[in-house]
């Protein structure tokens, strides 16, 4: 038996050439039919007028009606010829691609300009916020300045901090780091963060923020807002804000320091840590931990302090 011969592969460029050639053939065939019909039609009109005398008296600007009819038809034929041999050549697929590239370049330039404008506005807003913070610090009493309000969080590379009200990873050294820093201090959290824990954390004053009037829990102080929670902790030299996402977002304007554990991996989640604006925050200390038998991921302890 004879094996089937393999057909040669046709790449995209060759296929495009074939399609273009087929399109040009169809255009020229239509032009040919148009030309033939024009010749036949012109002959019929001449015969009707000259031989049979049809419409001899019908004239426009001194010319017989069939001359106008042939001229109009000839104009359409000329337009068809121009479209096939001129327009198609200079305004074909390559011309369309060039026009598209130009339009895309214009759009990209506009988008980039808008991005730069937004970025500049964000920088100005951040600088204004920093200036306001400096003004408030300058007017604050010495006792108020002694307190260092601190955010502490473990955050993935894509800023995920949790999913379904639970932690996604377990890093024993990070938990020890959290315990060492927060022991003996007030820890401020949202209700959902508290409910994700088995109980109030020992050796710390647990402050839970909630709008639920009937909320209560053992060994917990309830506050109706972040400002109220900070008032509860005003005698603590370093209260810690431990989550969740919305509480972190509200707390950034009041915070002096961020103790961040950056987990070097991206996760799917539904709770996120806000972006850290480097105009407002500066990195002052880092400590890298490689993954090992107790730690599934690399991570880094990073300390940020608000610029003065």
**Fraction of residues in helix:** 40-55%
CATH topology of the largest domain: Dihydrofolate Reductase, subunit A
Count of helical regions: 8
CATH architecture of the largest domain: 3-Layer(aba) Sandwich
Low-confidence stretches: none
Number of strands: 12
- What distance separates the N and C termini? 87 Å
CA gyration radius, whole angstroms: 39 Å
- The CATH class designation of the largest domain is Alpha Beta
Q: What count of structural domains?
A: 2
Mean pLDDT rating = 81
Largest sheet, spatial ordering of strands? 7-6-5-8-3-9-12-11
CATH homologous superfamily of the largest domain, by name? Dihydrofolate Reductase, subunit A
Residues in β-strands, percent: 15-25%
Structural class label: alpha/beta
Largest sheet: 8 strands, mixed
Reading the helices and strands in chain order gives HEEHHHEEHEHEEHEHEEEE
Name the assembly state: single chain
**Which outline best applies?**
rod-shaped
Can you walk me through this structure?
Helix 1 (12-51) packs antiparallel against helix 2 (65-90). This protein has helices spanning 12-51, 65-90, 93-139, 142-146, 172-182, 191-195, 226-232, 245-251; strands at 59-60, 63-64, 150-156, 160-162, 186-190, 205-209, 220-223, 240-243, 257-263, 271-272, 281-289, 299-306. Helices cover 48% and strands 19% of the residues. The protein has 308 residues and is α/β, with parallel strands linked by helices. Strand 1 and strand 2 form a beta hairpin. The chain starts with 11 loop residues before the first helix and ends with a strand. The strands form 3 sheets. It has an 8-stranded mixed beta sheet, sandwiched between helices. The protein has a two-stranded antiparallel ribbon with strand order 1-2. The protein has 2 domains: 12-91; 142-306, 3-Layer(aba) Sandwich (Dihydrofolate Reductase, subunit A), CATH 3.40.430.10. The model has no long low-confidence stretch (mean pLDDT 81). The chain is built from 8 helices and 12 strands.
């Amino acid at each position: 038996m004879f094996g089937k011969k393999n057909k040669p592969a046709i790449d995209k460029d060759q296929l495009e050439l074939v399609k273009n050639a087929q399109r040009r053939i169809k255009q020229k065939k239509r032009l040919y039919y148009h030309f033939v019909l024009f010749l036949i039609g012109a002959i019929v009109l001449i015969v009707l007028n000259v031989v049979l005398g049809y419409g001899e008296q019908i004239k426009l600007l001194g010319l017989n009606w069939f001359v106008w009819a042939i001229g109009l038809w000839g104009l359409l034929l000329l337009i068809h010829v121009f479209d096939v041999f001129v327009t198609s050549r200079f305004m074909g697929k390559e011309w369309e691609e060039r026009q598209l590239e130009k339009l895309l370049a214009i759009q990209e330039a506009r988008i980039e300009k808008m991005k730069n404008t937004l970025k500049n506005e964000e920088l100005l807003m951040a600088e204004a916020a920093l200036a306001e913070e400096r003004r408030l610090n300058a007017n604050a009493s010495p006792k108020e300045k002694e307190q260092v309000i601190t955010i502490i969080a473990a955050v993935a590379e894509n800023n995920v901090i949790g999913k379904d009200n639970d932690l996604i990873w377990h890093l024993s050294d990070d938990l020890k780091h959290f315990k060492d820093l927060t022991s003996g201090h007030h820890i401020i959290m949202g209700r959902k963060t508290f409910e994700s824990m088995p109980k109030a954390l020992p050796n710390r004053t647990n402050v839970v923020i909630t709008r639920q009037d009937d909320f209560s829990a053992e060994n917990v102080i309830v506050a109706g807002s972040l400002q109220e929670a900070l008032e509860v902790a005003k005698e603590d030299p370093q209260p810690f804000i431990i989550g969740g996402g919305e509480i972190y977002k509200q707390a950034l304007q009041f915070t002096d320091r961020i103790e961040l554990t950056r987990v070097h991996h991206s996760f799917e989640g539904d709770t996120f840590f806000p972006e850290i604006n480097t105009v407002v925050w500066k990195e002052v200390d880092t400590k890298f931990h490689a993954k090992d038998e107790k730690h599934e991921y690399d991570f880094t302890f990073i300390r940020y302090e608000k610029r003065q």
